[in-house]
Amino acid sequence: MNHERSFIRQFPWTILAPFLVLLTGLVIIVAVFLTT
Predict the structure, then answer these.
(1) How many domains would you assign to the chain?
(2) Which keywords does UniProt give here (predicted)?
């Protein structure tokens, strides 16, 4: 039962991970535009 709970806890991160990567990429692009 403990294993199942840890899986549910990690599951949302699998969905948020690509979104987080996209967000960080966007922030880097904005930073490059501001510094240039």
Answers:
(1) 1
(2) Membrane, Transmembrane, Transmembrane helix
pTM over 0.90: no
Q: Which domain holds residue 11?
A: 1-36
Ordered mean pLDDT values, 10 residues apiece, the chain (36 residues): 62 81 97 94
For residue 2, give the DSSP letter. Answer: H
DSSP labels, 16-35: HHHHHHHHHHHHHHHHHHHH
d(CA 26, CA 18): 12
